[in-house]
TrEMBL record:
The keyword Manganese does not apply. It comes from the Bacteria. Gene3D superfamilies: NAD(P)-binding Rossmann-like Domain. InterPro entries: D-iso_2-hydroxyacid_DH_PdxB (IPR050418), D-isomer_2_OHA_DH_cat_dom (IPR006139), D-isomer_DH_NAD-bd (IPR006140), NAD(P)-bd_dom_sf (IPR036291). Residues 128-236 form the D-isomer specific 2-hydroxyacid dehydrogenase NAD-binding domain. This is Glycerate dehydrogenase. Keywords: NAD, Oxidoreductase. SUPFAM superfamilies: Formate/glycerate dehydrogenase catalytic domain-like, NAD(P)-binding Rossmann-fold domains.
Length: 295
C-alpha cells in the first residue's frame, strides 16, 4: 500500500481494548505518538485535532466506521480491524477512497470452541432428570453454520461420540466420519444440543423455525449479535423449558427483559477473548500494519 517506513498517525479506537504491549509495538510505526481514544467519536476538541491527522486506524468489532466517520479523516489510508467481521465498516466508501481494510481471522476460535464444549459437557453432567451425571456420547449436536469454529466444535463432538449434523444454506457434501449436512428443519428438530455459528448480525431462523427445536434442548449462541430477532427469541424461550446460553458477543445488544427470561443464561465474558487469543489478535494487528508499510 505504501513504501513509507511509518504512518503519520496511528490511532486506536476503544473497541480494540489494547494492551500496553500492543501500544509499545505500534509506536515505531507512527511518526506521532500513538493516539488511544477512550470514546468514539472523540468529543474533546484537542483530541479531534490530533485524530484528524490519522492515516492508520485500528478498530474493534463494536466501533462503527461509516462514511461520515471516515470523511473526517482525509489522510486515512488504512483500517486494521481487531475483528473478523467488517459489518460496521462502509466498505464501499473505503474502496472508493483507496482505504485498505484488514480484518484478522482465527484468533478467538479456540476459546469459542472450548466455551461451547464446556456448555455441552456441563449440561450433560448436571441436568439429567434423575440427577445422575449424563454423557454426550450418543446425543445429537446440531450446528447452524459451518465455518472454522463450527467445524472444530463438530470434530470435538464426534470425538466424544456425538452424532453431529449441520446446516448451511447451500448443501455441502461430506465424507464418512465427518459431520453431516442436513436441512434446517432436521437439524433444529432433532438436536439434543444446538450451537449457532452463523454470520455476524444476521437473522438465520424465524420464530416458526425455533419452535421446531425440542423443548428441553440446550442452545448455545456465540455469534456476533443474535441469529434471530429478539422478539422471536423471547416468544420461543418463554414457551419452553430448555436453556439458552449466550456469551457477551451474542448478548451485547439484548435487552435486560430478555436476559431475565427463565432459561436464558448470559455469561459475563466474550467466549473468544482469552489471554491467548488477545496475544494472537494483537500479533495479527501488528503484522498486518507492518505489511501495509511494506515491512
Amino acid at each position: 500500500m505504501t513504501s513509507k517506513s511509518t504512518f503519520r498517525q496511528v490511532s486506536v479506537l476503544p473497541g480494540v481494548w489494547p494492551s500496553p504491549g500492543l501500544l509499545d509495538a505500534l509506536a515505531p510505526m507512527s511518526d506521532k505518538p500513538v493516539l488511544r481514544l477512550t470514546e468514539w467519536p472523540p468529543a474533546a476538541a484537542s483530541v479531534r485535532q490530533s485524530y484528524a491527522d490519522t492515516d492508520a486506524l485500528l478498530a474493534g468489532w463494536k466501533d462503527s466506521l461509516d462514511a461520515d466517520h471516515m470523511r473526517q479523516l482525509p489522510a486515512l489510508r488504512y483500517v486494521g480491524l481487531r475483528a473478523t467481521t467488517t459489518e460496521h465498516i462502509d466498505l464501499e466508501y473505503a474502496n472508493r477512497h483507496g482505504i485498505t481494510v484488514a480484518p484478522i481471522y482465527g484468533y478467538g476460535d479456540t476459546g469459542t470452541v472450548e466455551f461451547v464444549i464446556e456448555q455441552l459437557l456441563g449440561h450433560a453432567r448436571h441436568t439429567t432428570k434423575d440427577s445422575s451425571p449424563g454423557e454426550l456420547a450418543g446425543r445429537r449436536l446440531g450446528l447452524i453454520g459451518f465455518g472454522s469454529v463450527a467445524r472444530s466444535v463438530g470434530q470435538v463432538g464426534m470425538a466424544l461420540g456425538m452424532d453431529v449434523v449441520f446446516h448451511t444454506p447451500t448443501r455441502r457434501p461430506t465424507a464418512a466420519g465427518e459431520p453431516r449436512w442436513a436441512p434446517l428443519a432436521e437439524v433444529l428438530g432433532s438436536a439434543d444440543f444446538l450451537a449457532f455459528h452463523s454470520p455476524a448480525y444476521r437473522h438465520v431462523v424465524t420464530l416458526d423455525e425455533l419452535r421446531l427445536i425440542p423443548p428441553t434442548a440446550l442452545v448455545v449462541i456465540t455469534t456476533l449479535g443474535l441469529p434471530m430477532a429478539e422478539t422471536a427469541l423471547c416468544a420461543w424461550q418463554s414457551a419452553r423449558e430448555g436453556r439458552t446460553v449466550m456469551d457477551l458477543c451474542a448478548a451485547h445488544a439484548v435487552s435486560d427483559d430478555t436476559i431475565r427470561l427463565p432459561g436464558v443464561e448470559v455469561h459475563d465474558f466474550y467466549a473468544a477473548r482469552t489471554k491467548e487469543s488477545v496475544k494472537r489478535a494483537e500479533a495479527q494487528l501488528v503484522e498486518n500494519l507492518a505489511s501495509a508499510l511494506g515491512q
